Amino acid sequence: MNGCRRDGDDLHLELRVQPGARRSEWSGRHGDALKVRIAAPATEGRANRTLIAFLAGQFGVPKRRVVIEHGLHGHDKRVRVIAPAVLPGDLFP
After folding, report:
1. How far apart (Å, rounded) are the C-alpha atoms in residues 62 and 19?
2. CA dist., res. 76 & res. 65, Å (int)
3. What is the distance between the alpha carbons of residues 18 and 7, in angstroms, rounded to a whole number?
4. d(Cα 80, Cα 70) in Å, to the nearest integer?
5. Are the C-beta atoms of 16 and 35 separated by less than 8 Å?
6. Are 55 and 91 in contact (CB under 8 A)?
7. Residues near 35 by beta carbon (within 8 Å), at least 6 away in sequence
8. Residue 47: what are its φ and ψ, rounded to 5°?
9. For residue 92, what pLDDT is reported?
10. pLDDT grade for 2, boundaries at 50, 70 and 90
C-alpha cells in the first residue's frame, strides 16, 4: 500500500498533514502519502501533538508508541507506529 509499509511489528506512514481542520480525520491520499486533517493549528507544536493523539487512537496504542521520525515542522511527515494493535478499517479494508 502506498503511504504505508511494515517493518517487523511496526508500521511506517508517509503522511500529508493539513492542520486547522474542523475535526481530525483521514481524508484520502496526496500523491503517495496518506492525507490526514488535524483539528489543531500548526502553532507551538499543537498540530503534532494532536496528530500523535489521533494516530494513537486509530491504531490502538499509547501516544508514546507514535513517533514522528521526519517532518516535525512541515506538512509532509514520516511517522512510525510501534506495534499497532488495530488497523483502521477505512484505510486497511
Report:
1. 22
2. 19
3. 26
4. 10
5. yes
6. no
7. 15, 16, 17, 18, 26, 27, 28, 29
8. -65, -40
9. 64
10. confident
Q: Would you state the cell numbers that stand for residue 5, as one nine-digit string?
A: 509499509
Which tens digit of pLDDT belongs to each residue from 13-66? 999 999 999 999 999 898 899 999 999 999 999 999 999 999 999 999 999 999
Enumerate residues 6+ apart whose C-beta is below 8 A from 6.
12
The pLDDT assigned to 87 comes to 87
Question: What pTM was estimated for this model as a whole?
Answer: 0.93
DSSP for 52-80 reads HHHHHHHHT--GGGEEEEE-TTSSEEEEE
Query: Hey, is 51 helix, strand or coil?
Result: helix
